[in-house]
Design a protein that fits this description.
The chain is an all-alpha fold. It contains 18 helices and no strands.
Length: 506
């Protein structure tokens, strides 16, 4: 098809980006803001220590399990419609959570947030994919989106600290409502989805059931591994069930006419490499957020608000790496020349944190580590998120976007369970080998020394995971720079989407 015959981009696309960014920020904030409020909510609603994890797990299971379904619904319904429905549902669920009078009501609201988040998140990313097709504009748009996706969690710590400390934990839910209302108004006024990008195929019900049950089993398995241990019967059973269900899902998808997840989306080596490397990077990042939060609050005695502000250098680094490095170079150099150095730079930041001690200074250790981490992750995430949907057929944009979120969600579940387990084991070993120091250090100081040793040990593993992510990118991602319109070199029939990604000549 001649280039001149292509549809002109929507003149309101930059305004639309602003409202899409607001919705994405709301979803990302929610991942950490509730963590800050959890201790207060637990006391207020009389939630036991054994049940408090369900405030996080209920959301994670619904969100992670339904992402592929949500992405395909966006392709079928239209991304704008799915985006609006997700926003309204998320706002209603947040209102229920804020008004919760008991544990069951709060857990139900969290699960409902996960359901609508699974519809909203892939709809938002796929809207970007189909609205911004010119290379330089796409770079800027994904730079903004990547900065929000990377830095929003840390901003959630600040906002959650303020709301919990100065207002009430319920406002960590209510705060979503104005975000959602503003984004819905913007969606009605300025977001217009390009014509001809819907997927008119029917819904793959067996695929929906298998994918949802398989992903729920997988996410829950890592949650139970953290609490029950990796060798417990329940944990092993969940992992086996997840493996069986997901293998069956792949077999079904290879046979049905209108699959939930067309295998062409994930078998493309570039997208497959992005999904794997992003998942690994999130494993490392989730562990880091957890340990650094505990280090600053428990060991160093920071308040929730001060802890949130302590993360700002990482946010600034992510924004700079995403918008000033990734976005400027994405159309000039191949993605792997941004992703590999980005992951390795982040690994250097992690490496600095392995040297943390109880008396380490923020300015001398944590600050430089955060800056390097932020710059590295921002530089790597931005081209990765763009490449995940670059060249994909428009009818598959929703499910390709859902795979980005799925890799991150599963990575987060793995990161929390795996690195927590490693840290706990390191603490136990340290306490056993240093028992003689308990009397000389005192109970509190001894506990802090043990905890910091556990954090540092787990962060060493995070360093290795980031290096592995860089290696996967080096081996699998061979795309050329994203300096052309996605799909420009594809035929009209759209049977093959891989040729639309220019290949780097070796």
């Amino acid at each position: 098809m001649p280039e001149t015959a292509q549809v002109q981009p929507d003149p309101r696309r930059w305004k639309a980006l602003g409202f899409i960014a607001i919705a994405q920020l709301m979803v990302v904030l929610d991942a950490t803001i509730v963590n800050i409020a959890l201790p207060s909510a637990q006391v207020d609603l009389h939630i036991s220590d054994g049940d408090r994890q369900w405030v996080i797990t209920a959301y994670a299971l619904a969100f992670g399990g339904l992402l592929l379904f949500g992405g395909r619904i966006a392709d079928l319904w239209g991304r704008r419609r799915a985006f609006i429905a997700g926003l309204i549902g998320f706002a209603l669920a947040s209102a229920i959570g804020g008004a919760a009078g008991n544990e069951a009501m709060l857990l139900g609201a969290r699960a409902l947030q996960g359901v609508f988040g699974a519809l909203l998140a892939p709809a938002a990313l796929s809207l970007l994919a189909v609205m911004f097709t010119e290379a330089h504009e796409r770079a800027k748009a994904f730079g903004i989106y990547g900065a929000i996706a990377g830095g929003g969690s840390a901003v959630g710590l600040i906002l959650g600290g303020f709301l919990t400390e100065y207002l009430d934990w319920r406002w960590t839910f209510y705060v979503n409502i104005p975000f959602a209302v503003l984004a819905v108004i913007g969606a009605f006024l300025v977001i217009r989805e390009p014509a001809g990008t819907h997927n008119g195929s029917g819904l793959d019900i067996p695929g929906v059931v298998l994918a949802t049950l398989g992903l729920v089993s997988l996410v829950y398995a890592f949650t139970r591994a953290e609490s029950d241990g990796w060798t417990s019967n329940v944990t092993i059973g969940l992992f086996v069930a997840a493996a069986v269900l997901l293998v069956a899902f792949v077999l079904v998808e290879s046979k049905v006419r209108a699959p939930l997840l067309p295998l062409r989306v994930v078998t493309d080596r570039n997208r497959g490499g992005v999904y794997l490397s992003l998942g690994l990077a999130i494993i490392a990042m989730f562990g880091l957020f957890l340990f650094l939060t505990y280090y600053l609050q428990v060991v160093k005695g920071y308040s929730p608000v001060r802890t949130g502000f302590a993360f700002l250098p990482m946010v600034a680094g992510m924004v700079t790496g995403s918008t000033q490095i990734g976005a400027r170079l994405m159309t000039r150099v191949p993605p792997r020349l941004l992703m590999v150095p980005g992951f390795l730079l982040a690994a250097v930041g992690m490496l600095i944190l392995t040297q943390m001690k109880v008396d380490s200074s923020y300015a001398g250790l944590v600050l430089p580590a955060q800056i390097l981490l932020g710059l590295g992750m921002g530089t790597a995430f931005m081209p990765a998120m763009s490449l995940a949907t670059f060249g994909v057929q428009p009818r598959d944009a929703g499910v390709a976007s859902a795979m980005v979120n799925t890799s991150q969600q599963v990575g987060g579940a793995i990161g929390t369970a795996l690195l927590n387990t490693i840290a706990a084991g390191a603490v136990t070993d340290w306490v056993t080998s240093h028992a003689a120091q308990a009397r000389t250090l005192g109970k509190a100081a001894f506990a802090n020394e043990a905890a910091v040793h556990g954090y540092a040990t787990a962060i060493w593993w995070a360093v290795g995971i980031l290096v592995l992510a860089a290696a996967i990118v080096l081996v699998l991602v061979d795309s050329g720079h994203q300096g052309r319109r996605p799909g420009a070199s594809s035929g009209r029939d759209g049977h093959e989407d891989a040729p639309s990604v220019p290949v780097l000549a070796h």
